[in-house]
Amino acid sequence: MTYKRVAAASVAALMVASPVMADLVFPSLSYRTGPFAAGGIPYADGFADYMTLLNERDGGVGGVKLQVPECETAYNTEKGVECYEATKGQGALAYNPLSTGITYQLIPKATADDIPLYTPGYGRTSAANGNVFSHVFNFPANYWNGASAAVNHILDLNGGDLKGKKVILLHFNGAYGKEPIPTLTALGEKHGFDFSTVPVDYPGQEQKSQWLQIRREKPDYVLFWGWGVMNQVAVQEAANIRFPMENFIGVWWSGAEHDVKPAGDAATGYKAVAFHGVGNDYPVFGDINKYVVEAGKAAGDGSNVGTVIYNRGVYAAMMLAEAAKKAQEIHGVADITSGQMRDGLEQLEITNARMAELGMEGFGPEFKVSCANHGGPGTAAIQQWDAASGKWSLISDFGPSDMDVIQPLITADSEAYAAENNIEPQCK
Amino acid sequence: MSEQLLFAAEVTLNGLMAGVLYALVALGFVLIFKASGIFNYAQGVMALFAAMTLVGIQQGQIPFSHLINAIFGTEIHHFPWHVPSIIAIIAAAGVMVGFAWIVERYILKHLVGQPDIILFMATIGLAYFMEGFGDMMWGSELKTLDVGLPQGLNETVLNVTDKLFGYGFFIDNLDIVAAVVASLLVAALTIFSQYSKQGRALRAVADDHSAALSVGISLRFIWVLVWSIAGFVALVAGIMWGAKSGVQFSLSLIALKALPVLMLGGFTSIPGAIIGGLIIGVGEQLFEFAIGPLIGGATQNWFAYVLALIFLVFRPQGLFGEKIIERV
Predict the structure, then answer these.
(1) Domain assignment of residue B74, given as a range
(2) pLDDT in tens, A20-69
(3) What's the domain count of chain B?
(4) Neighbours of A14 (CB within 10 A)
């Protein structure tokens, strides 16, 4: 009898707790647990909260509500693939896996399933070539744009001359961390700086020998591709050896509040490349607070609103929502399919006027996606940390990256992929 | 002295410091293994849980607030106070004692007499349970740990070595503190086990469970005691590592650093954990310094295990471990 009651209560609770079914489904392959939870939580919150905002404020997109079923990956590639398989049957329109490893595994699967992948600022860089990667989109910027933006910044600091300068890349010793090496090598040859790499193994909790090496080699600049605990330890170790923090520049995945706060005041001056705005001084965050957080509908406790990674989740959700809207316009239907969503992504145009309408004026660049270019404009800015105010600030405008160097690398890598997988160019 | 030799000396010194931190983690394993023959897979998670508890108490965080808010629709997160570091450390140590009691009462008590592998499996379950329980209790966001420990380059070492060799050595203040704390901890544990009644009982249990029971030593009390001490050691390790990286899931992975130390130093020796930690610390740093750049770097993780395996080949019980001879 007791068991029956418990079972009945459980079923009733599930029925009450289950979300109302909506038509535009964007599964969130989140990681709120595991070694990378510190970054995974605010991203998942931002992604979900923006979709909730659209539901609460606008009634969804084109009158159709949005749904964001979450599946926990713990940043584990196998779990990520399981999550994809488990959720694609719910009518998934697109995936944003938030993991380069998961993205690599999903590219052939999602392409075969006619479901687009949206991987802003991560994943396979050469997927920017839409001619080969028909179902992968990584606008507005990829790792190679990030590497170029960092080099452009140090070029600016040195009057455009880097001859004889020494630049070290401290990187995660895996696919993600190795992504910028070809670009930085090419840029080193082009600008005449001495480029070398210092890898750090997972998880990166211990980096003593790497920073002793950096102390010995006395580089002018250290570029940084880290994620998870590696970020906090690197910033602390840089401060420990008194490396000039303004010459230490991370990629956008190494530039969140939680990356610098453990080092306290010593982290002031640390820089990171950014492909979107920082802070909460945009009307959209006022709306999120009003319609989502204060209404008790936020994915988290609301404390992450306006933080770097939360903002990135919001930005990604905005892009997908805009692409869904575009797909509805193209195909003249409200309930779009994943194939139609792909078309929406491929014909997406983000203008400054539209960004202003969305309450995100100046948050990111304006651009137009095309069949051949799934990577967007590749523009990026530099943000800098100030521990006293506890804030990141953009210290440069969103500038272009060196496509003379990047485009041949994208072409070569994507064509090699096409040859390996017998892929015919999709753009006629 | 040549430049390379100076660099090597600096790396060796830093390796010794890193080794002390490894030894701190290994110490927790040794204590439990000595007293109960259990290889405690949960030791790394205990360090994480202890550090999370410390920060939670210090910052006045309400335990299980996410759960409470989700169930009751409330918006509570923090008490309106901030607890001084020393009180928070004592309170966190108290929580670890409570944890030890719960482990004994609800797990170990029911597994007395079971094969070692069963006890080991139980600690795997315990590790995963604690991982989730800790997240539920305190949240899985990164937490900044600040108990006032000094960090950064030590000026004295820098100036002295600069004067002596013309090259200032880098030593992290936090590593010096860790070395002092670890030394005090080992000294205290040695005095406790040699001269106190409970310490002697602990050693008796370590030697022979049945014989200890036959002379009236309470096995259950000893287990609570030893898990409490291991919990305290985990708290200290959590503080030292967490001060650098913040308190987050990765703290639980520091156990991986202790395994080669245990293989090398032996599972049953406190001095073995210390010496093993130092050898691993110096060995991996020197290898990375001398050979790492030639083979792509990032060698520390795997080289520590290679070093331990080499020692195992020649001395399977570890440097200071007890040689177990089972006669048929």
Answers:
(1) 26-258
(2) 445 899 999 999 988 899 999 999 999 999 999 999 999 999 999 999 99
(3) 1
(4) 9
Query: Phi and psi for A273 in degrees, rounded to 5?
Result: -80, 145
Scanning every residue of chain A, which has its alpha carbon at the shortest distance from the alpha carbon of B133? Answer: A33
Q: Which residue has the tokens 């008194």?
A: A242
Cα A238 to Cα A268, B55, B152: the distances in Å are 11, 24, 9
Q: How confident is the model at residue A1 (pLDDT cuts 50, 70, 90)?
A: very low
Q: How far is CA A288 from the centre of its chain?
A: 20
Q: How many CB atoms lie within 10 A of CB B211?
A: 11
In chain A, the residue whose alpha carbon lies closest to the alpha carbon of B66 is A301
ipTM of the complex: 0.90
Does B41 map to a domain? yes
Strand-by-strand arrangement of the A381-386 sheet: A194-200, A166-172, A221-225, A248-250, A271-274, A381-386, A391-394
Helix residue ranges per DSSP H, A18-170: 37-53, 77-87, 100-113, 143-157
pLDDT in tens, A293-315: 999 899 988 889 999 999 999 99
Residue-wise pLDDT for B296-327, tens only, equals 888 988 999 999 999 889 888 888 876 666 66
Asked if the Cβ–Cβ distance from B153 to A264 is below 8 Å, we say no
In a domain, B109, yes or no: yes
Find, among A265, A255, A251, A248, the residue nearest to A232 by Cα: A255
Query: Best interface-test mutation with A: which of B145, B245, B291 has the largest number of A CBs within 10 A?
Result: B245
